[in-house]
Amino acid sequence: MRLLIVEDEPRLLRNLAKAFREEGYAVDTAETGDDGLYKAENFGYDAIVLDIMLPGVDGWEILARLRTTQRTPVLLLTARDATHDRVRGLDNGADDYLIKPFDLQELLARLRALIRRAAGQPRADLTIRDVVIDTRSRTVTRSGQPVALTAREYAILEYLALHRGSVVSRSALYEHLFDETDDTLSNLVDVHIFSIRKKLGADLVMTRRGQGYCIEM
Ligand code: CA
Question: Can you name the residues that pair with 214 across neighbouring β-strands?
């Protein structure tokens, strides 16, 4: 999953980016509204964390511009006493909000829920035949036995499982799993898929030649 964080407090931005990366997300960051808007409009994100008070283009304008073209889940960060901000945010197409200062675990849980809901998967457990993916603990079992996946393997599997029934192109996988700080080589996805099949069954992830990968319904 790839996130965009738009936040002008450098320390908070750094801490959030670090925490999300530790959770296995690919994370792009923007310290100004203009940079945030540019990235939000030009890259595919699974969710956006958006501070309202920003220099230049503020969070309201970014939200309004985004909602003319896309449904990417947006979680707003609002100031403590601004009830009207929260109402305005939800009325204007935000999917959720948190009041600063917030608990990091709560932010992580809310984002997981937003991403699942956007994919039409309200449950935290994703079950594919004998394989169960727990998106809270980021763990996988097969026939009840834990299976150790690398962070990348897990990220690919979770993305395909959330988009079960759809063919996901290799370029979509790259866009959603690698962030602006990543310069790894492009054949890695195939290597990870090979490894996922070895651990979880050869026919779990199907290859559609020339199109991409798919976990069938
Ligand atoms: Ca701010």
Answer: 206
